[in-house]
Design a protein that fits this description.
The protein is an all-alpha fold. It contains 15 helices and no strands. Helix 6 packs antiparallel against helix 7.
Length: about 400
């Protein structure tokens, strides 16, 4: 198989698996009403997917050194299909939804990184780096398609069909994986895959600065992605005399898509200039737009203007993705780069799990979904993630790698 064809098939495999990624966010207003959920429960339902991913990654990704990565990918994809179809057929309320979405996150943890390992194992440079870049960039496109497909199908046929469509996507990706993905490299004699000493990573203050910044980044980013559809739907309802130029689903899709070229540009700029200064500029822009979005619930701005603010804010939220990850890689001890990236992913998804959840709790405590002040407070919860990222870079990170003795 040519490198180009393998790259296209791997990216298609990923996009089809990602159809379930943001389905809950796309239909969250409907689920809140139908299941009579509180905002705190809605936040947990949105964030528990990332908890499943967080639990799965440190177990399943190291296993790819000992077990053929393709086997893990296929098992995870089967789980994803069963869980999404199970959600469509069996989910009846908050607790059943929580269990199924947690398992969906586990399935994604077994599909995303192991498939990337297959790609890296099967290619030589320069195609390895090129294919890796394409594959990771497609992740954002896949999440955008997940929002769009979930929202459109949910509006026309109901939320259960949105999850059924995600399950069909998993089934199609299973066919692609089974027929065309290579096996990948593995060594059954390796016995230390599940027992990695992460303590030296936590002693690396320079890398931990970027890792904690990434946690703050995902806290803010996924608070936005989980709640933006519900917020815009509420805002349009509050302004019956002024229509938005498009639907909340389309705005959420644009939020996910528009950040991709901005992230690439920021990464190129950071490679030529001071990385931390670029990140500080991004976080300053995100802070301004986040505060502006938080204020919109109180100002009565036209819905179309609020949508534009949301899109620009989303661009700022995604702009640091490549740059902060590159910072982690560049400051890692070369002998611990894999372990450092594992901590990077784990801490990031701690933020992704907690951000939407805390925002939902604050939304309840501050007055509920019909209270403008409560929405402003919930967005401030998200903004706090970016503030934490700046603190982590400024006061925790130090240049260079220095190992401290036990």
């Amino acid at each position: 198989m040519s490198p180009a064809r393998l790259t296209v098939l791997s990216c298609t495999f990923l996009v089809l698996n990602l159809l379930a990624f943001m389905t809950v966010a796309a239909v969250l207003p409907t689920l809140i009403t139908e299941w009579a959920m509180s905002n705190s429960q809605a936040g947990w339902l949105g964030g528990v997917f990332f908890a499943g991913y967080l639990v799965a990654v440190p177990v399943l990704v190291p296993l790819t050194d000992r077990i053929p990565p393709k086997r893990i990918c296929l098992i995870a994809t089967v789980l994803g299909a069963v869980v999404s179809l199970g959600f469509a057929l069996l989910a009846t309320g908050f607790w059943s939804g929580m269990v199924l979405r947690f398992l969906a996150g586990v399935a994604m943890g077994g599909a995303y990184m192991p498939a990337l390992k297959i790609l890296a194992d099967s290619l030589e440079e320069p195609w390895r780096s090129r294919a890796t870049s394409y594959y990771t960039s497609v992740f954002a496109i896949g999440t955008a398609i997940s929002i769009l497909a979930g929202g459109l199908i949910g509006d026309v046929y109901g939320w259960r069909w949105a999850f059924a469509a995600a399950g069909i996507g998993n089934a199609l990706s299973l066919i692609i994986g089974f027929l065309w993905l290579p096996t990948g490299r593995s060594d059954p004699s390796i016995r230390s895959g599940l027992l990695v000493d992460l303590r030296p990573v936590f002693r690396n203050r320079a890398a931990m600065g970027y890792i904690l910044a990434y946690a703050g980044h995902l806290w803010e980013g996924f608070t936005n992605r989980i709640w933006i559809v519900a917020f815009l739907g509420w805002y349009v309802f509050q302004q019956p005399g002024s229509a938005m130029f498009t639907t909340p689903i389309i705005v959420a899709t644009l939020v996910a898509l528009c950040g991709v070229p901005v992230s690439m540009f920021a990464g190129e700029l950071a490679a030529r200039r001071n990385r931390k200064k670029v990140l500080y500029s991004i976080y300053a822009a995100a802070l301004i737009m986040g505060l502006l979005l938080a204020s919109t619930s109180l100002t009565g701005m036209p819905p179309s203007l609020v949508a534009v603010i949301a899109i620009i804010y989303g661009m700022a939220l995604y702009a640091d993705t490549g740059t902060v990850t590159a910072g982690t890689v560049s400051t890692a001890d070369p002998a611990l780069r894999g372990a450092t990236m594992a901590v990077h992913a784990m801490m990031g998804f701690v933020g992704a799990t907690l951000g939407p959840t805390v925002a939902g709790i604050v939304l309840d405590l501050a007055g509920g979904r019909d209270d403008p002040v409560a929405w402003g407070a919930a967005w401030l919860v998200g903004v706090s993630g970016g503030v934490f990222a700046v603190f982590a870079l400024r006061y925790f990170g130090r240049p260079g790698w220095v190992e401290r003795p036990d």
